[in-house]
């Protein structure tokens, strides 16, 4: 099952990137320069994940060459992704320490050493964390934009609709693959069966889809008032995270920034960032944010 996770991740990543490129060409050909510019702008936050990838590569003692920089400029760094050096601070769930790893390396190690190999688990965790970051920074804004185009501007638009659908599925899978990895980290836990993974994917897709649709419909009816509603939700979730005293980031300034950024993510979905049972926190999240 572990080998299937990077395979599906690669397939969705390629499909999402292809659909995004088609959407860009679609707006350019039709002369819709406003939507063309906004779609291009949604690519910019994704460079944060590419920059982090380069920093991990340099910290590992491998100065990036021209070909590697070109890959990251094209936002293909996840296909050839470096592992982190031991002296570079990382989140507690990102535990890969070693040489360059990528989705292809995960597949190779899983095939050579089996699904339970520790090297394969470390590499899988590294790419899952980086893919989740890229999905939240880049795929989510693109999903919101394309969903708004389909709902409010061009309901018959096939290409924006396909791009929005693939972005939704890719984002949901990024969350599922992260949950899959954190489950494997727990002592005595085996890889979840395919039925569990499918249920998680359906849950994440439905949750994200309904929240995105609700925000898009609200924006269509009330225009910029949607930012007031989303802002209030963001502040509430940020204060809730501060009250939980999450200790993933030690420095006070970075800790506050982390809680603010995660509070924005909580507008759309719940991500467990604390060890231990999370049933109470999940119940509180859905009770407040429903």
Q: Give the radius of gyration.
A: 19 Å
Distance between the termini: 33 Å
Number of strands: 0
Structural class determined from secondary elements: mainly alpha
Proportion of residues in extended strands: under 5%
Helical fraction: over 70%
Averaged pLDDT: 79
Specify the biggest β-sheet.
none
The number of helices is 11
Overall shape: it is: globular
What quaternary form is this?
A: single chain
Topology as H/E string? HHHHHHHHHHH
Which parts are unreliable, with pLDDT below 50 for 5 consecutive residues or more?
A: 82-101, 106-111
Family: Belongs to the XK family.
Keywords: Cell membrane, Membrane, Transmembrane, Transmembrane helix
Transmembrane segments: 33-57, 147-175, 195-217, 224-243, 255-273
Organism: Gymnorhina tibicen
Describe the protein in words.
Belongs to the XK family. Keywords: Cell membrane, Membrane, Transmembrane, Transmembrane helix. The chain crosses the membrane at residues 33-57, 147-175, 195-217, 224-243, 255-273. Helix 1 runs antiparallel to helix 2 (33-41) and helix 8 packs across helix 9 (225-244). The relative contact order is 0.10. By secondary structure, this protein is mostly helical. The chain has a domain at 3-79 and 101-223. It has helices spanning 4-29, 33-41, 47-59, 66-73, 103-113, 118-153, 158-185, 194-222, 225-244, 252-265, 279-289. The longest helix is centred in the middle third of the chain and has 36 residues, at 118-153. 71% of the residues lie in helices and 0% in strands. The two termini are 33 Å apart.
């Amino acid at each position: 099952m572990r080998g299937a996770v990077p395979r599906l991740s690669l397939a969705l990543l390629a499909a999402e990137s292809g659909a995004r490129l088609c959407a860009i060409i679609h707006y350019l050909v039709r002369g819709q320069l406003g939507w063309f510019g906004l779609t291009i702008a949604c690519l910019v936050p994704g460079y944060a994940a590419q920059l982090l990838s380069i920093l991990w590569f340099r910290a590992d003692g491998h100065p990036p060459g021209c070909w590697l920089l070109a890959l990251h400029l094209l936002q293909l760094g996840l296909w050839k992704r470096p592992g982190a050096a031991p002296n570079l601070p990382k989140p507690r769930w990102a535990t890969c320490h070693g040489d360059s790893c990528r989705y292809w390396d995960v597949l190779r190690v899983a095939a050579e050493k089996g699904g339970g190999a520790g090297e394969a688990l470390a590499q899988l965790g590294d790419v899952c964390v980086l893919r989740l970051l890229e999905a939240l920074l880049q795929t989510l804004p693109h999903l919101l934009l394309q969903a708004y185009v389909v709902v409010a501007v061009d309901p018959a638009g096939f290409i924006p609709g396909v791009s929005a659908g693939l972005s939704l599925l890719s984002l949901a899978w990024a969350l599922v693959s992260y949950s899959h990895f954190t489950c494997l980290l727990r002592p005595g836990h085996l890889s979840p069966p395919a039925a569990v993974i499918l249920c998680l994917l359906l849950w994440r897709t439905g949750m994200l889809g309904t929240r995105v649709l609700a925000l898009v419909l609200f924006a269509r009816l009330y225009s910029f008032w949607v930012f007031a509603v989303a802002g209030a939700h963001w502040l509430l979730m940020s204060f809730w995270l501060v009250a939980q005293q999450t200790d993933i980031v030690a420095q006070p300034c970075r800790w506050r920034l982390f809680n603010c950024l995660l509070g924005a993510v909580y507008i759309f979905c719940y991500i467990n960032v604390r060890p231990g049972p999370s049933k109470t926190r999940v119940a509180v999240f859905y009770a407040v944010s429903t």
